[in-house]
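Long-time lurker. I teach an intro course on protein structure, and each term I like to show students one example going from raw sequence to a predicted 3D structure in token notation. This year I'd like something fresh instead of my usual example. Would anyone be willing to generate the tokens for the chain below so I can use it in lecture? Attribution to the forum is fine with me.
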Amino acid sequence: MSCEELQEEEREILQSIFEGDENFKAVDSNSFQYTVYSATSSDKTVAVRIHWPSQYPEIIPNFSLELSHNNQIPPHVKANLLNELRTYAEENVGVAMTYLVVDWLKDNVDSLIPSGLKKEEVKTEQLTKRQKNKITNYANSNTRGRDWVDIIRHLSQTGNPTTAE
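-- Reply from a regular --
Happy to contribute to a lecture. Here you go:
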């Protein structure tokens, strides 16, 4: 069988296997996406996109983890995961391996993704105007208009006496 015929056959098999599975998505005729959730930990999830080159299944498919679902996974973990996926796919060259790869990933997601992964959030401390003035030495300077924000805020709170009835 030619590569195109093997791909068509695998496409039909995947549609029948994953029918109704909300974690599986056929992106186009040669690209598929599957989101794998760990059974033991809610923070161990990964979405993988599998793209078949024209010579697939005689060569391994292309794997991508560059999906918004994977933003919490650090780059070094993604690189390790891609290496493991490629190694597993190399063992199955010549056979329809998309289902095998997804099944293997389901079985190994706990060991491939470390626990407690959270992307570090950079929090900026909110400073008061007095703190900002202290830092920039505006409190000691008599620069014209340095307190215009306070004047405008005061005027907006008191209201305009000419418009009051």
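Some talking points for your students: The chain is about 40% helix and 15% strand. The radius of gyration is 28 Å.
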